[in-house]
């Protein structure tokens, strides 16, 4: 994937999307093959490589381990040995940007799932990785929080961060991704939006309205319009 | 709503851990190290002073915000040490049995009082300021946090099992529910540990920097600390001598 690009990895439950994401993050070793990070073989033990990657787990509860939201977001910066003043400024900046500035002194276990997701994202964005790996980023979220996360995905890609999101949410993939991939029988294959829209049965389970538009050949246009609306909603 | 003794215990642990986790700030840079050293000295060496320390700690604990609720936690070390001391009684070693309970309960009271006033994080910040290894300080910090999460997870696991048990729950069923829940929890604990390990690894971007706690405790000078430790030691010697 390219920097500044949003790619979506689609696949049914149990197809290996999460495992692949963890391999790409350097947290699991593949049985075969290798991951190239900007042309260099990825070494998960190399802090320089880890700094280039930011991974947000499917379950944010598993990702949070610090006493307060502030400590959670500050953790990575502190391991870089940054002065506390700079840490404070960056933490507050990211927290305000994600709308969680009021939660900094709370322990993460008191937060709602959506708030935990935002804290997990903030804890990764704060050290400005080159690539962001998101596992089911919109799951368990209410519509307004899901919109906020979608806007974050678009905004970080606009500043050159490459985003790969693993999801089984076809709508989110169509709305956000520049490139689509699918896990088919253990292999990753590229797929065009038209191909996904040509599967009315799967779309019907997700969004009957989109399935109806697809059957009339109007879905692509509707998606383009929706992307424009998303851009507008994010800029407000 | 907790229905079984195990669930009540888990809820107690969860609220105790959450309460400790909230904590307060550190009112004095020297208080925490003094309290910690005193607890260690008195509990291990000066047996005759234990009742004085226990009484003073109880008063301090009751005076702190939420102290009465925390005082209930002392029931656990009392119960555990009493069970451990039971074999001494038939042997006629009642004084030893009482001493065992006192040595267990007194430092617990002292620690509870210290945490009630300083907060758990204040205590850990002091440990960090004293130069305790980062692994230990952060491990202790994570202990409470994971304690809350684990207790919550266990309560959910048990409640899920009870929700699907549609008949009357006999005592045999109760044991079966708890046993399978504990087995499930062990597996979940392993998975959770793996996830936490990956989460920590993913965001450890350099040589771990010294911990910067949010409490303002530090050791600006060792003199007050040394003076306090000597004073306590002297007091202990005097008390021991006075009691013969």
Spell out the blueprint of helices and strands:
The complex is a heterodimer of chains A (about 240) and B (about 240).
Chain A: E1 6-10, H1 17-24, E2 36-37, E3 40-41, H2 47-52, E4 53-56, H3 60-63, H4 69-79, H5 84-97, H6 113-125, E5 131-135, H7 143-158, E6 162-167, H8 170-176, E7 179-184, E8 187-191, H9 193-197, H10 200-206, H11 208-215, H12 219-235
Parallel strand pairs in A: 1-6, 1-7, 4-5, 5-6
Antiparallel strand pairs in A: 2-3, 7-8
Chain B: H1 5-22, H2 31-44, H3 50-63, H4 67-71, H5 75-85, H6 94-118, H7 120-129, H8 134-163, H9 171-203, H10 222-242
Written account of the structure:
The complex is a heterodimer of chains A (236) and B (244). Chain A has 236 residues and is α/β, with parallel strands linked by helices. In chain A, 49% of the residues lie in helices and 15% in strands. In chain A, strand 2 and strand 3 (40-41) form a beta hairpin. In chain A, helix 7 (143-158) packs across helix 12 (219-235) and helix 10 (200-206) runs antiparallel to helix 11 (208-215). The longest helix of chain A is centred in the C-terminal third of the chain and has 17 residues, at 219-235. Chain A is globular. The relative contact order of chain A is 0.16. Chain B is mainly alpha-helical. Chain B has helices spanning 5-22, 31-44, 50-63, 67-71, 75-85, 94-118, 120-129, 134-163, 171-203, 222-242. The chains are: A alpha/beta (236), B mainly alpha (244). The A-B interface holds A 22, 25, 27, 44, 47, 50-51, 53-55, 57, 59, 61-68, 70-71, 75-76, 78-81, 84, 107-109, 123-124, 127 and B 18, 21-22, 121, 141-142, 144-146, 148-149, 152, 192, 195-196, 198-209, 211-212, 214.
